[in-house]
Design a protein that fits this description.
606 residues; alpha/beta; Beta-Lactamase; Rossmann fold; Helicase, Ruva Protein, domain 3; 4 domains; 5-stranded antiparallel β-sheet; 5-stranded parallel β-sheet; 18 strands
């Protein structure tokens, strides 16, 4: 490597004093590799300036490009701050660059200190006493008119006369390479923009195909063929093209977020953001910052400006889930944004215009909340423009097998299994009320699939068939007019039995606790049974749990009863529910089943 580089005469002196004519060619080669390696224009040009700094002993340099509006912008510099050069603090010689672009000819300033218009720019360099600052500026162009400049600043010994013809020739070659790179980047950007616009035009012109396994339901992302869901699909398709605010009503777990997404993707705003916020998950202060954004320093921890969800959703859709949980104080702030379409960030005073379509959802009785003063009437009327009521899963039973199979397929894919339902298992699930709706059904399927011993999920593998359904217990503890966690309140004809089963019409062979009791029967919590006093017998040991001591009637724990009479008495008292009889006798439902078969006792249907 040579110790010094001097391309003034298109050659370099090596350490031994010989001439190295290959250095300019090596420099051009390195520059072409950089410009051809990436489409990141600013980075590649900055790297080119660094090479010129090494090979030409350049002190400072810069590249300017003419923008679409006609102004010159500094896009890359070396030996100075790019931000300061763009803001004018470095006094970058833009006037000289304008002259070079206008004449399409290079310009050489032999001494910056002797030219008044460059005095401030020259003062920013570190210059020795005997050095002279010179500036060379060449145009960037391809075939047409110049569209930018390349300029370098060099320092030379003031005692020697300098000729810059070879430097100008070399920089002109470099400028041509940069010009080709700039032209290619502009063409790629123009093609990309054209393709994006064409894609958007085609998406609007071509109707969305209803693909997918359950496309017949009317919405691509919603599973269901029932009449109730078809009605919801028709409402969604009718309201989606408009700008009207939509209020989704329904119990927890009915799929309000899926319907909100369907409204968005069927609307003209489909290519814009879909932003969702769960209002119940945030405190009032956090919710205000989350929705409206905040300025730097507005509160402890606000280290920078932050856009709110309203700003993020501009041009698109904002989905406010659980809007019934918003505090009355915040409701007034939310109402102003919805009415005026403008907001101020927390800690700021600048008014920001927003254009969003609002979709709200709640499982609360908003009318009752308005009557009690918990929800503002004006906000209620603002969001209740187009209400869509989502049916509970017990109101669309024909969709249960489809949903169950969908969730089982999802489980199989995630866990590399090949499980399937038996007909009896699907029938049992179809008879369940599922107070937690689709969310509970998903959990039920995942639980049964996780505990399945073979590739077929039988009805005996379902938790509700073994009196282990905790959701049914919760369902039984509702009160008249009282909803729990988004579950529907108890009605006059919907009173659960003592054991809280969520089954409405149990299939043949299902526990009879599933049957719906008479309307006059009061709701009671599940009874607590004493633990068995003796170890349970193995059901495979011929079920020898009782002593045959003659027939009698009375208490099931009466030692005077034989095992058959005790079994019959327990079944009668348990309403012929095997699980209940097992609790009375301190046995499992399987042991009760073996005992019934042993004594050939037919089951009664209550």
């Amino acid at each position: 490597m040579p110790e010094t580089v001097n391309i003034t005469n298109s050659r370099s002196q090596t350490r031994e004093g010989s001439v190295d004519n290959s250095l300019p060619l090596i420099t051009i080669y390195e520059i072409s590799k950089i410009l051809g390696s990436t489409l990141n224009l600013e980075k590649s040009i900055h790297d080119v300036l660094n090479i010129l700094s090494s090979y030409l002993q350049m002190r400072r340099g810069g590249v300017t490009l003419r923008e679409d509006h006609g102004d010159l912008e500094v896009i890359a510099v070396a030996g100075m701050s790019l931000r300061r050069a763009q803001e004018g603090d470095e006094s970058f010689p833009l006037a000289l660059a304008q002259q070079v672009i206008g004449t399409a000819m290079p310009v050489i300033i032999h001494s910056l200190a002797d030219d008044p218009q460059f005095t401030r720019y020259a003062a920013g360099a570190d210059v020795m006493e005997d050095e002279v600052q010179s500036l060379i500026c060449v145009p960037l162009k391809t075939i047409g008119k110049p569209f930018g400049t390349l300029s370098i600043e060099r320092h030379r010994d003031g005692t020697n006369s300098f000729k810059f013809e070879h430097d100008v020739r070399f920089l002109t070659m470099v400028a041509n390479l940069i010009g080709q790179a700039v032209s290619l980047e502009h063409k790629v950007a123009a093609d990309r923009e054209r393709l994006i616009l064409e894609k958007a035009r085609l998406e609007k012109a071509i109707p969305r195909p209803e693909t997918g396994k359950f496309a017949a339901a009317g919405l691509d992302n919603v599973i269901g063929h029932s009449g109730a869901m078809m009605k919801v699909s028709a409402q969604v398709r009718q309201v989606a093209p408009s700008r009207a605010t939509v209020l989704l009503r329904g119990e927890s777990g009915t799929g309000k977020e899926l319907i909100a997404k369907a409204v968005h993707f069927l609307s003209p705003r489909a290519d814009k953001p879909f932003v969702k916020v769960n209002c119940a998950a945030l405190t009032e202060t956090l919710l205000e910052s989350e929705l409206f954004g905040h300025e730097k320093g507005a509160f402890t921890g606000a280290t920078s400006d932050r856009k709110g969800r309203f700003e993020m959703a501009t041009g698109g859709t904002l989905f406010l889930d659980e809007i019934g949980e918003v505090s009355p104080q915040f409701q007034a702030k939310l109402l102003r944004v919805l009415q005026e379409g403008e907001l101020e960030r927390v800690g700021g005073n600048k008014t920001i215009k927003v254009d969003v379509r609002l979709i709200a959802a709640t499982n609360k009785d908003l009318e009752d909340a308005v009557a009690r003063g918990e929800f503002r009437a004006d906000l209620y009327f603002r969001i209740n423009v187009v209400p869509i009521f989502l049916p509970a899963l017990r109101e669309r039973k024909e969709d249960v097998p489809l949903l169950a199979q969908f969730f089982l397929d999802k489980f199989n894919e995630e866990n590399a299994r090949g499980l399937r339902f038996s007909d009896g298992a699907l029938e049992v699930m179809s008879c369940c009320k599922f107070p937690g709706n689709v969310r509970e059904l998903e959990n039920c399927v995942f639980r049964a699939a996780t505990l399945a011993q073979n590739d077929v999920i039988q009805e005996l593998g379902l938790s509700c068939h073994n009196d282990q359904c905790l959701s049914a217990t919760l369902w039984s503890r509702r009160g008249p007019g009282k909803s729990i966690g988004g579950l529907a309140p108890v009605t006059e004809l919907d009173v659960p039995d003592n054991f809280g089963s969520a089954w409405e019409n149990p299939p043949p062979g299902a526990p009879q606790s599933a049957a719906r009791p008479p309307a006059s029967r009061p709701s009671m919590p599940p009874p607590v049974y004493p633990a068995p006093s003796a170890p349970l017998a193995d059901p495979m040991d011929d079920w020898g749990g009782f002593q045959d001591q003659g027939a009698a009637a009375g208490d099931v724990n009466d030692p005077g009863l034989n095992e058959k009479d005790r079994l019959l008495l327990a079944m009668e008292r348990a309403g012929w529910v095997q699980a209940k009889a097992g609790r009375l006798l301190g046995m499992t439902p399987r042991q009760i089943g073996y005992a019934l078969k042993k004594y050939d006792i037919p089951l009664k249907r209550m």
